[in-house]
């Protein structure tokens, strides 16, 4: 690991905004699967209170809506369960 690579499995995106919150997102293709290290990171960040997702191209509408509106406890999130 180098300072550029970071930790194995850490999410692809960390998006932070003072009013819209913080998001950790792993980006996958429609058929892509999460590796064990990626699942571990997402679970750890989720348990720590992070807003965590596995985003796929099919989630585009939700992603746009979430990024524009900010967190909403009534949002219908796409299935963010990592596929193993």
Write a structural description:
With 84 residues, the chain is α+β, with helices and mostly antiparallel strands. The protein has a single domain, classed as Trna Endonuclease, Chain: A, domain 1, CATH 3.40.1350. It has helices at 36-47, 60-69, and strands at 13-17, 21-27, 51-55. It has a three-stranded mixed beta sheet, with helices on one face. It is globular, with a radius of gyration of 13 Å. The two termini are 24 Å apart. The model has no long low-confidence stretch (mean pLDDT 85).
What CATH architecture do you see?
Answer: 3-Layer(aba) Sandwich
Low-confidence stretches: none
Mean pLDDT: 85
Give the tally of structural domains.
Answer: 1
At CATH level 3, the topology is Trna Endonuclease, Chain: A, domain 1
Indicate the structural class. Answer: alpha+beta
Q: Give the neighbour order of strands across the main sheet.
A: 1-2-3
How many distinct beta strands? 3
- Profile the largest sheet: 3 strands, mixed
* Helix segment tally: 2
Query: What is the H/E string?
Result: EEHEH
Fraction in helix: 25-40%
Our Rg estimate from Cα atoms comes to: 13 Å
The CATH class turns out to be Alpha Beta
What is the global morphology? globular
Terminal CA distance reads: 24 Å
Strand content: 15-25%
